[in-house]
Amino acid sequence: MAETSPASRSLELDIEGMTCTACARRIEKNLNKIEGVSAYVDFASEKAHLTVSQDVTQEMLIHSVEESGYSVGSDRSEITTLKWRVAVGVILSIPITAMSMIPALMANMWLIALLTFPVAAYVSWPFHSAAIKNLRHFASTMDTLVSLGVMVAFGYSLFSLISGNHETYFEVAAVVPTVVLIGRWLEVRTRRSATDSVRALLSAIPSTANVRRDGVQITIPANQIVKGDVVSIAAGERLPVDGIVIEGSGVLDNSLITGESVPEHVAQAMSVSAGSLNLSGSFLIHATAVTGTSRIAQIADLVREATATKAKITSITDRISTYFVPNVILLAILTYLIWSFAVGNSAQALSASIAVLVIACPCALGIAVPMSLAVATAQGAKRGMVIRNPDALAALNKVDTIILDKTGTLTDGMLQVHSSIPLGSVPTDEAQQIAAALERGSNHPIAKALARLGNTKNATELNEIAGVGLTGLVEGQKYSIGYQESARLTNQKDLDKEIEKAGAMTLAVLTRGDEAVMLFTLSDRIRPEAKQSIERLKAMGIEPIVMSGDVTARVRDVAHELNVEKWHARVSPENKLQLLADLKTLGKTTAMVGDGLNDVAALAGADVGIAMGSGTHAAQSAAAVTLLDDSPLGISYAMDLSRRTWRNIRQNLIWAFGYNVILIPLAALGLLNPMLGGAAMAFSSISVVLNALRLRTR
Q1: Tell me: the pLDDT tens digits for 489-528?
Q2: Which residue among 187, 310, 348, 409 sits deepest, i.e. has the most Cβ atoms within 10 Å of its Cβ?
Q3: What is the spatial distance between Cα 315 and Cα 329, in angstroms, rounded to a whole number?
Q4: CATH number among 2.40.30.60, 2.70.150.10, 3.40.140.10, 3.40.50.1970, domain 206-302
Q5: Is 494 a catalytic residue?
Q6: Considering 242, 405, 595, 630, which one is annotated as catalytic?
Q7: What's the predicted TM-score (pTM) here?
C-alpha cells in the first residue's frame, strides 16, 4: 500500500460476504479503479486497507464494494450462522448417507429427498450466493463448482425419483456442501484471531487512573489522560500511560513489554511504559504518551499491520477451480449438444451431460485439502498441539528459519535459586531458612524464588525498600536481603569475587549487620527438551535463532548451551518485528515461537506463529499453533507434522484431479452413466479419506 501523503488519508473498511481469495482480488481491483485510491484487500482479516486522496468519499468506496457484489460492515454473527449451517448439514448428512448407501434403508427415497432439501437449500446457500456473484462477474471459484454439483445432484435425483428411476445422488448433494462448509467455518474462526490478539493486548492497560490536577488527586478514565498530566502509581497497579518518573521509586514488572521475569528498579527521570506492573513502592509520572499512542498501543498497531500485510496461502482448490469449472461446464454443454445431434436421443444426451457434471462434482477435490488438515489437526491435538489455523500446517512446511524467544520458551521463565554461596558464619541451611522467612510475603519474582527455600522460620518488622530489598527480624536478629549492593561490608572483597564468578546470574545478598552472610545466584532454568528440539530442527534444515529482551550475557549463555550460533539480546517488540522483516527480505520463510505480550507482534508478523501453552492469551490469539504442554519438542513435532501433511495434501490433489481428468472424457463419450459416475466419485472420495487417515500412523 502506498505511503500516506499530506493530501491523502488512510482508511479501513470491514468487508462482508467474501468466501475466497478471488473475492478479495475482485474487490481490490474495483477499488483501485477509483482515481486517488490505493487499496489492498486482505481476505484473512476481512478488511480493505486503503490510502485515498482527500476528494474520495467513503460513499464512493462503499458503492465500489457493493458493485463488486459484497457489502461494507462488520458482521460478527457470520461465524454463528456458519456454525448453524454446519450443524444442520452434519445432522442431516449422516442419515441421508446411511439411507442412500444401505439397501435395507432405501425403502422410502422420498424421505431421503425431503431430508436432503434443507441441505441443498439452507446449508448450501453460501455456495449458491457466491456462485451468483461470480456469474455476475463472469468468474468461477470452488463455490461455483460446489453450487453446481449440489444443484445437479439434487435436481437429477429428484427428476429420477419422479420418473421412477433409482439413479439418485442425494448423498452427494448433502455430503459435499457439508464437508466444504466445515472447512469454511474453521477458516472464519481463524480469521478472527488478529482482532482477538489485539483486544487481549490492549486489555493490559487499566481502564482508570489516579491523576493529580490543580493539586487534587482524582480518578478518571484512562482514555481521558492528556500529555502533561501527573499520574500517581501505587504498588500493585499497572501503568495506564507511558511517562517519565518525576517523584518516588518502584520496582516494575515489565514482562508484558520485554518478556523478562527480572524486575526493573525505576526512579526519578527514568522512562516507564503503559502495561507495566508496579510490584512495590509508589511514584508519580509525567504522561508523555496517552492511551492511544502508548508503546503498548503501538505494538497493537504493529500486530494489525503485520496480520494485514503478511502473505497468505492462497487456496489451492480456488486456483484449480478458476480454470476447471468453466471448462467442465463447457464440456457438459458440448456433450449434450454433440449427443443430441449425433444420436438424436435427448435422454441419452442428458444422461451423458449429467454424468460429466457428477464426475466433476468436487467431492474428492473439495475434501482433498480439508480432510488432510482435519486429520493432522486432530493428530496434533493428541500431542498437545492446538492448531488454530489449519493452513499453518502447509505454511510450516516452507519454514527454513525459526526465531525462538528465550524466556518462557527455551527456559521455563521462572527464577530459581541456582546456588547458595556461604560468605559468613551462618550455616548454609540456616541462611536459606532466614532468606525464605524474609521474602515470604513479597510478590517480587526474586523473593518468590528465595521463599521456596524453606518455611521453618518467621520474620517480623519487615520493611521493604523499593529497588533495594528488605529488612526484618529473624529470631531477634536483624537481617537484610538485597538485590543490589547498598553498603560496604567487612567481607566485601570475598563477595565481589563470588559476584564476578556468577557472571550473568541474577543476584541476592543476605547480610547481618556489616557482614555478607550468603550470596544467592538465580536464573531461569533451560527446559530439559530444548536442546533435543533444536537438534531436530537443525536436522530438518531449519536454522534456529534465539531472540530475547534479556541482557546480553544471559542470552549468550543460553544460546551457547543449546548450540545455537545466532542470537539477539536486548530486543524490543519493535526490533523483533524488524528482524523478521529483514529475514523475509533475504528470502527466508520464518516461524516465531514465543509466550508473552512482547512477542505478539512478532507472532503475528512471522509466516507462522507458535505460542507456548503457559503464555499469555494475546500470544495464543496471535499464533496459529499453541503448544499446550510447553515442551520445546512440540516445535520440532509441528514441523515434522506439517511436512507429512503437505505431502499428503499433494497426494490427495493428484488423485482427486487425476480422477477427474481420466473419467470426465469417458463420461462425455457415454461410457459412464450417472450411476457409475456416482460410484466412481464415491470411490475417489473414500480413497482421499483413507490416504488422509495415514497421517494418524505416527
Answers
A1: 888 888 888 888 887 677 888 988 888 889 998 888 888 8
A2: 409
A3: 21
A4: 2.70.150.10
A5: no
A6: 405
A7: 0.57
